[in-house]
Design brief:
- This protein has three domains: 73 residues, Winged helix-like DNA-binding domain superfamily/Winged helix DNA-binding domain (Arc Repressor Mutant, subunit A, Orthogonal Bundle), CATH 1.10.10; 124 residues, Aspartate Aminotransferase, domain 1; 240 residues, Aspartate Aminotransferase, domain 2 (3-Layer(aba) Sandwich).
- It is 42% helix and 14% strand.
- The chain has 15 helices and 16 strands.
- The strands form four sheets. It has a nine-stranded mixed beta sheet with strand order 3-4-8-7-9-10-11-12-6, sandwiched between helices. Strands 13-16-15 form a three-stranded antiparallel beta sheet, with helices on one face.
- Helix 8 links the parallel strand 7 and strand 8.
- The longest helix has 25 residues.
- The protein is globular, with a radius of gyration of 24 Å.
- The structure holds pyridoxal-5'-phosphate (PLP).
- The site of pyridoxal-5'-phosphate (PLP) has 13 residues, from helix 7.
- This is GntR family transcriptional regulator.
- Pfam families: Aminotran_1_2, GntR.
- It comes from Paenibacillus ferrarius.
- Keywords: Aminotransferase, DNA-binding, Pyridoxal phosphate, Transcription, Transcription regulation, Transferase.
C-alpha cells in the first residue's frame, strides 16, 4: 500500500484495503476479542499510508461493529459472531459480508436424511445411467488418447462449437465458440466471476432470496450486498434502476428463470428493460440459468443475454443438474472483454475442466436419447411437484406453484419457529432448507425451501406427511 500521488479513486480503494487488512488480521487471530488495535499512527506507519486513511478504515470498522472505542484509549476488537451480517449506511441495507469461509447449504445437506427435501438435485434414478455408461466406452474408443490429454483453459473447442450452434438455434442469437467458456458447474463460474469483479466492500446486487451458495461465495470476497426482492411477477424495475444509480454495483447476480429457491420467472417484458438498465448504469448482469429446460407448462422466456448487444450480460448455462450431474458441465457466454478476464481466472483455478467430462458430455448432448430423457424428466418432476402440493394443501401454507425448477418456496405460519422445526424434522430424518440461508439480509425466518426432485414419489408422499405431522405440534 502506498499513497504517494494517488487519485481520489485510489484513495477510496486504499481505505477499503486497510479495512480489509484489519479484518483479515482479526480473523486470523492476530488481534483477539477485546484486544487493542495499533494506534492510527502506528498502523499508518506500518502500512505506509496516510493517517486519515487508517482513521477512515477504523471509523468504518466501528460503524460495522467489528471494533469498539474506549474513550481516550483506542479501538478494541469486538467479540466475534461469525454469522452476523452487518448493516451499513442504513436505509437500503447494503450488507458488508464477513469474508469467512461458510457454505450454509452444504452444512445442511451433509446431514443424511431418509426424506431429503434439502437437495435441489435430480433423483439419480431418473437419469439414463446405463445409456450413459455405454457412452463412456464409445467416447474412449473415439479418442484413444483422451486420458492423456489436457483440455484447453477455455474448454474443448468441439464442445464449444456444438454449444454455440445449439444456442444460436434455440435462442436466435449470433455466437461463436470463442464466446463460450466451459467450467466445472455453474458454481465454479460464480466463484470465478466473484474473484474477478469483487474487491472488498464492492457493492453487488443480489436477489432476495437467492441461491444460498452465491451469497456465501460473494461474502467470501467481502462484497457489500444490495438486495433486490424477487416476486412471482419479477422485480420492481424502478427500484432496480434506483439501486443501480445510487450504488453503482459491480454486477447484479440473478437467476431469473425458475429461480432457486422460489421457482419464479422474470417475465420477458422486464428482461429487455433490465438489459437497457445494465447498459445505462454500466452494471453487469450475471444471468444464472441452471434450470432452463426444467419447465412444466412450456418453455420459459428467452434469456436476458439474447437482448444484449453491448456485452453487459454474462450468461451461465449449467447442464450439470439435469443432463449428467456427474460431469458438471456449465457454459459461460461472455463478451471478449469479460472472457479475457475469465481466461486468467480459470487458468489460475484449474487450467481447464477435465477433458474426459467434456467429451462424454459432447456426445451425449448431441444424442437423440438426451431429448427423450429431458422430456421424461419434465413429466417426472411435474408429477412429484403435484404430489408435494397435494400433500401440503390441507395445511393452508402459502406458496406460488412453480412452473419449472425443483423447489417449493413456502411461507409457514408465524407460529412455527423454523429453526426448532428443522431440528425436530431432522430427528425424524427429514431435511429441508430454512429460508434464512437464502436471504442476504438473514431475516426470512418463516420461509422454507422444499425440493421435490430428489426422492421418489412414495418417499415424497410419506416424507411430506411426516413433515406436516411435526408441524402440527405447533398449531
Ligand atoms: C441457481 C443455481 N446456480 C448454480 C447452481 C450450481 O450449479 P452446478 O451444479 O452447475 O455447479 C445451483 C445448484 O443448485 C443453483 O441452484
Amino acid at each position: 500500500m502506498n499513497e504517494k500521488g494517488m487519485a481520489a479513486d485510489d484513495g477510496k480503494r486504499l481505505f477499503k484495503q486497510v479495512y480489509d487488512h484489519v479484518i483479515h488480521r482479526i480473523e486470523h487471530g492476530e488481534w483477539k476479542a477485546h484486544e487493542k488495535l495499533p494506534s492510527i499512527r502506528q498502523l499508518a506507519e506500518e502500512l505506509g499510508v496516510h493517517r486519515l486513511t487508517v482513521f477512515r478504515a477504523y471509523q468504518m470498522l466501528k460503524h460495522n461493529e467489528k471494533v469498539y472505542v474506549k474513550e481516550k484509549s483506542g479501538y478494541y476488537v469486538n467479540p466475534n459472531d461469525p454469522d452476523r451480517v452487518v448493516l451499513e449506511y442504513g436505509e437500503d441495507q447494503p450488507i458488508v459480508a464477513s469474508g469467512k469461509l461458510i457454505n450454509s447449504l452444504s452444512d445442511i445437506q451433509r446431514v443424511s436424511a431418509a426424506y431429503q427435501f434439502s437437495q435441489a438435485l435430480i433423483d439419480p434414478n431418473l437419469l439414463p445411467n446405463l445409456f450413459l455408461s455405454d457412452y463412456v466406452k464409445k467416447v474412449f474408443d473415439l479418442y484413444p488418447k483422451l486420458m492423456g490429454t489436457y483440455s484447453t483453459v477455455q474448454g474443448d473447442e468441439e464442445l464449444r462449437e456444438v454449444l454455440s450452434r445449439y444456442m444460436m438455434q434455440n435462442h436466435h442469437t449470433q455466437l461463436q465458440a470463442s464466446d463460450i467458456m466451459i467450467t466445472t458447474g455453474a458454481q465454479q463460474a460464480i466463484d470465478l466471476l466473484s474473484r474477478i469483479f469483487i474487491s472488498p466492500m464492492d457493492a453487488v446486487m443480489i436477489e432476495r432470496p437467492t441461491y444460498s451458495a452465491a451469497i456465501d461465495i460473494f461474502r467470501q470476497q467481502r462484497a457489500r450486498f444490495i438486495p433486490v426482492d424477487i416476486h412471482h411477477y419479477g422485480y420492481d424495475i424502478a427500484n432496480v434502476e434506483r439501486l443501480m444509480k445510487q450504488y453503482k454495483p459491480r454486477f447484479f447476480y440473478m437467476n431469473p428463470t425458475f429461480h432457486n429457491p422460489t421457482g419464479y420467472t422474470v417475465p420477458s417484458s422486464q428482461r429487455k428493460q433490465l438489459v437497457e438498465l445494465a447498459e445505462r448504469y454500466r452494471c453487469l448482469l450475471i444471468e444464472d440459468d441452471a434450470f432452463h429446460d426444467m419447465h412444466f407448462d412450456g418453455p420459459p422466456p428467452q434469456p436476458l443475454f439474447t437482448y444484449d448487444t453491448e456485452g453487459w450480460v454474462v450468461y451461465l448455462r449449467s447442464f450439470s443438474k439435469y443432463v449428467a450431474p456427474g460431469l458438471r458441465i456449465c457454459a459461460i457466454i461472455a463478451s471478449p472483454t469479460v472472457m479475457k478476464l475469465l481466461f486468467t481466472a480459470k487458468s489460475l483455478a484449474d487450467n481447464g475442466s477435465p477433458l474426459v467430462n467434456q467429451k462424454i458430455f459432447l456426445h451425449y448432448f448431441q444424442s437423440e436419447r438426451l431429448q427423450q430423457h429431458i422430456e421424461k424428466l419434465r413429466i417426472a418432476l411435474q408429477v412429484r411437484r403435484d404430489i408435494m402440493e397435494k400433500e401440503l394443501t390441507p395445511t393452508g401454507w402459502n406458496w406460488v406453484s412453480p412452473r419449472g425448477g425443483l423447489n417449493l418456496w413456502i411461507k409457514l405460519p408465524e407460529a412455527i419457529p423454523v429453526e426448532q422445526f428443522l431440528k425436530e424434522c431432522m430427528q425424524q430424518s427429514i431435511s429441508f432448507v430454512p429460508g434464512i440461508i437464502c436471504d442476504p439480509l438473514r431475516k426470512m425466518r418463516s420461509q422454507i425451501r422444499l425440493s421435490y426432485s430428489f426422492i421418489n414419489e412414495k418417499q415424497l408422499q410419506q416424507g411430506v406427511k411426516n413433515l406436516v405431522t411435526v408441524a402440527d405440534r405447533y398449531s
